[in-house]
Amino acid sequence: MRQKRANDCGARSNALWGRGSRGEARSNALWGRGGRRAGAVVAMVATVAVFAAAASAGSGNGNGQARGNHAGLKAYVEDSLLAAIQQNPKGTFDVILSGSPKGRSAGLVNSIVADNSGAGSDESFSKNSIKKQFNAIDGLQASLSGKVILRLAKRGVVSSIMANETVQKSALQLPLYNTQLWAWSTGAPVDWTYGTPKAPTIAIVDSGIDPAHTADFGNRVIGQVNVGSLTPNSPGDGYGHGTFVAGIAAGAAPGMAGAAPTANLLSVDVMNDNGQSTVGDVIKACDWILANKSTYNIQVANFSLHATNRASVMFDPLDAAVEKLWLNGVTVVAAAGNYATDAVNTPSGVPFAPGNDPFVITVGAADIGTKLGLGDDTVAPWSAWGYTGDGFMKPDISAPGRYMIGPVTQGGGLALSRPDKVVKPGYMQLSGTSFSAPIVAAAAAMLKAQHPQWGPDQIKGALMLTAGAAPLAKPGSLGVGEVNIATARMLHMSSPPNPNAGLDHFITSATDGTQVFDAAAWQSAAKANAAWNDAAWADAAWSDAAWADAAWGDAAWADAAWSDAAWASAAWGDAAWSDAAWSDAAWSDAAWADGATSEATGDTTDADQTEQDSTLADLGIVDPSCDPTVSICQVTNAVDSLVP
Ligand SMILES: [Ca+2]
Ligand SMILES: [Ca+2]
């Protein structure tokens, strides 16, 4: 069965053969599934080409290093393309050439032209052969002879050469689907095939999860615990917020697929039926997760909530609690908060726990506009961003968070308070960083499924490395950029760079032997040396990041943050952290009950059929059985399978 599937997927590369009558016949023979797929072929377009190049590079990600997947070639050349060229070297092939992940298309053209090793021969590259230059990637589409392609591959002036195949026209029916643009914008469809790996458990620290939503969660809610101290707190989810968060992370209802629909969920209820909680309750939730993570395989914890008192990481008990989870292997994802008033232009700062904690993954909300792609994206106007009280830049990353539709408790507090947002019984349209965070939590869970050896630092690094920058957004407002689940899952790297490397010097052992962050030692070092964190961004792998131009490392530790002035502020005096600041009453109605509740009227945007088809093609999803990010769907055998 494995072999059959691999061959089915391998058949996608046969688009090449569609150009000649001989190839046509062969192609049809290989499809093997009858009319549905006859002639239906998929573009191995830019994104896939880049990932494939990275995959072949293994640990060698530096520019100019050999990435060839065949002896004698320095570029990655798709197996089926190579086979076709070998059979017909003088034939013309429509291909996509990719250069450096951080380069520009113009630079690639210059490099190719500058390398005139084929000048005067039939291996010579002509600028006239260029059909398109891309902006989003360092790449171009060209019509080249097989000989020219081989020379380019041998010279190594390009990193990959892929066939530009026809985009699949017929709609591919995945077992799970969701037409909302957010899902397509984040690459979530890679998680909707039968081949999707089983994700570990995500703890949802929230208002509960409504067990009546069996279509969404099946039997994947493997536990519900109530650690909330405020009443009334109904069993399940008397409010609805946690159900929505869980649905975005891992829903699987028809037409309402979440980002990781194979994940198990564990509800840790801290919020009462009015959406209120206390700091103590949330810390208790951390305790519970720490004690039970092995029993339930909890690898990720989502906190779509925040405290309402400004906090320094040096004194904040909730920060200490989430750090404890992080340092014990649980990837913590926190919503940035919705309290910005003009986020498009002005940072709000991110002063509240747990989103102000430097270790955790803090998630902002992107407004993804109306089109697929990041070109019309910006930050949601209420999405918090900027420095924490301790000078850390937050959020780390963003995800869509506006006008999303998901499951809530029918008749729960949320539905009753905003009946105008109910789109059908049990489902609402809501906005907030609360709903961006679970997309990232889902991405983290899927990465953990694929890379069990990765810890939270590596998962955070992989998500940040592969995030896409939105050109219209102010640098930093979306963190390094928007999460992309597919890109992250196609990152073939044994150990992603660690964005928390600078903090690791200050991890020490507690009296019970567990690891803790010595925030006082960190503060002392940070005040003494503004460059203390250079190590975190020194990894060469960051230079390949899509957002590297934004110089996140610099922004995150801008001099201003470390100026004496930042530390002289009375706000950070010890007095500010008196017991009074921890009054439970101050914690109420978590993340969603602020800016996003007064959200401007707006409609959920769907990805249209063309956008869906092109995304599936870009992602290499050609079969409901095949997840292109795992080995079962990779073309390992295409050359052999093409030989008559
Ligand atoms: Ca509850
Ligand atoms: Ca967009």
Characterize the structure shown.
The chain is α/β, with parallel strands linked by helices and 644 residues long. The chain has two domains: 121 residues, Peptidase S8 propeptide/proteinase inhibitor I9 (Alpha-Beta Plaits); 418 residues, Rossmann fold (3-Layer(aba) Sandwich). Helices cover 30% and strands 15% of the residues. The chain has 22 helices and 23 strands. The strands form six sheets. Strands 6, 7, 10, 11, 12, 13, 14 and 17 form an eight-stranded mixed beta sheet that branches. The longest helix is centred in the middle third of the chain and has 18 residues. The protein is globular, with a radius of gyration of 25 Å. The protein starts with a helix and ends with a helix. The structure holds calcium ion (2 copies).
List the helices and strands and how they pair.
Layout: H1 2-10, H2 21-31, H3 46-57, E1 76-77, H4 79-87, E2 92-98, H5 105-114, E3 130-133, E4 139-145, H6 146-155, E5 160-163, H7 181-185, E6 201-206, H8 214-217, E7 221-226, H9 241-250, E8 252-253, E9 256-257, E10 265-269, H10 279-296, E11 298-303, H11 317-327, E12 331-335, E13 361-367, E14 378-379, E15 386-387, E16 393-394, E17 397-400, E18 404-407, H12 413-417, E19 422-424, E20 427-430, H13 433-450, H14 456-465, E21 477-480, H15 485-489, H16 501-504, E22 507-509, E23 515-517, H17 519-528, H18 552-556, H19 559-562, H20 564-568, H21 609-619, H22 638-642
Parallel strand pairs: 1-5, 6-10, 6-11, 7-10, 11-12, 12-13, 13-17
Antiparallel strand pairs: 2-4, 2-5, 3-4, 8-9, 13-14, 15-16, 18-20, 19-20, 22-23
Helix pairs in contact: 4-6, 9-13, 10-11, 13-14
The structure holds calcium ion (2 copies).
One calcium ion binds at residues 207-208, 228, 233, 237-239, 269, 271-272.
